[in-house]
Amino acid sequence: MRVTAAPPDRTERALLSSMRSLLLLGKMMAEGADEAQILLLASGAAPSVARCGYARVVLAGDTEPRELAAAVAGLGPSEGEVAVAGLRHAWAWPLRRTDDHLGHLVVAGPTEFSGEETFLLRALAQQTGDALANRRLHDQEQATAATLVAVNDRLRGTVEALRRSMDIHSRLTAVAVSGEGRDGIARAVHELTGLDVAIEDRHGNLQAWAGSERPTPYPKESPACRERLLARAAREARPLRHGAQVLALAHPQGDTLGAIVLRDPEHRAGEAELMALEHSATILAMELARVRSLAESELRLRRDVVDELLGGTDEESSLARAMALGYDLQRPHRVVVVEGRAGHGRAHDDDVLFQAVRRAARDEPAGSLVVARRDEVVLLADSEPDWEHLRRAVLREMGGGRARMGVGQRCDQVGDFPRSYRQARLALRLPAQAEQDDRAVRFDDLGVYQLLVGVEDLGEVERFVQRWLGKLLEYDACRSSELVRTLAHHLERGGNYELTAKSLIVHRNTLKYRLQRIRQIAEVDLNDPDVWFNLHLATRAWRTLDVLRTSR
To answer: Is the Cβ–Cβ distance between 548 and 458 less than 8 Å?
Structure first.
């Protein structure tokens, strides 16, 4: 069933709306406006995308206004800060069509522009530069056609360049409006350029491909090299050639989300191909901003659903939220809690664990409703996989490390989720308290621990522990010794001296000495089966009480 995520928030909707408006503005500029109208449209559009009190296009070679024209001329083809009287912050963006420098769009306001405003103003400057270049090409074609017959070949090239530019604008605008996504953008650029096209995420992972056979595996640089390339491309603020490829960044609001790449080992990419690449990067930025907004909205909705379920909220509300995600809560589930850490050298453990559980649960399959909560990851499992196999799959996805898993009892209705969650956390912590190896533990399989957890009057359990372990606990507290822990290990391993000494990491003689002290202080005979049983039960009850106290 298709997941219906929550809509983008107001900021994202405003950004997308502004981007569509700029695309339509660019189309208006390209379709019949003369140069004066283009300049008027550009300066008039600036206040609609940014808080500003001044907007003006200063063309290359302008001498008025004198101080501003001189400052802008000093920037050359780059962008930079300028001064406008009466306004605190002023910035000039180049009107650039590939390598042609046509001038600058100067916008000034009372405060520095936000990342969103900077992105939109840079896009406006790009649209204006393209429209001016197209207008001048068109004017040049008309003037030349009227006076020079000898340059017919050149005129045909100029007309073709103009037609090509219009085709690029039209095709990419159609992709943006129709919502064809990353695959549609890649196909459109391939059709426009005839070159292989790749869309990559920030880290260089392939997201979409169009052209000849997709390379397998897809080549990927080291993280350090990738970051240097992105920084260089961001400084250039235009398509950048890097070896056999030409790359343009998609970075709405200054945050690089991905890149679109032309594979061009023969250096065939000319002005038209670079124009298509630059415009497609703008469309890709809008698409990636939309996808990120939807993903964040869906993640928030998933977290809200799980929080409501585990907190014991209203059943009708939980069912409604789950339905919005396309998730069926009206079937048996178990709550699964996973804790762990990635292997050495892996950063961002919380996210690594979350992604590992999500992928492992998808591949088993075990369920799709996975959220991170504090230091744990919670999975609402709608099937009965081999739980230890699932835990090991999580470890493989993390690339090693440690992972423990607790599985609550089955939930047959929405009201059972809080109980199953508490049980899963107890199943996770009791083996750890007993210093057992990492493993997946079902609450159903806890045996006597399960009975102890279910006792309503914990006072009776505490009195039982004091009856059998009180003297040892007091001795440990006064001497900072570990007699109770030693006894618990010994009983859990059936009295095997070798296994107990190994688990405690002590010498066999040390173990024998401790057991002799236990017999003396507690005044017990470890050879008596009844004494053995009660001591074993008491050590398990002691551990259970400790877990219950820390879980409250």
So the answer is: yes
Token pair belonging to 361: 């649960």
- What is the C-alpha to C-alpha distance for residues 212 and 441, in angstroms, rounded to an integer? 49
Residue 81 is inside which H or E element, if any? strand 80-81
Q: What is the fold of 10-174? A: Beta-Lactamase (3.30.450)
Which homologous superfamily does the CATH classification assign to the domain defined by 176-293?
Answer: GAF domain (3.30.450.40)
Characterize 116-136 residue by residue with b for buried, 16 or more Cβ atoms within 10 angstroms of its Cβ, and e for exposed: bbbbbbbbbbbbbbbbbbbbe
**Angstrom distance (rounded) from CA 72 to CA 70:** 5
Averaged pLDDT in 10-residue chunks for the chain of 552 residues:
43 72 80 83 89 91 89 89 91 77 91 89 88 83 66 61 74 76 87 90 88 88 87 85 89 77 90 84 79 64 74 70 71 89 57 85 83 84 89 87 88 85 81 67 75 64 83 87 86 86 87 88 86 83 71 54
For the chain, the domains span: 10-174, 176-293, 331-446, 454-551
> What is this structure's pTM?
0.46
Spatial contact of 309 and 417, defined as CB atoms under 8 Å apart: yes
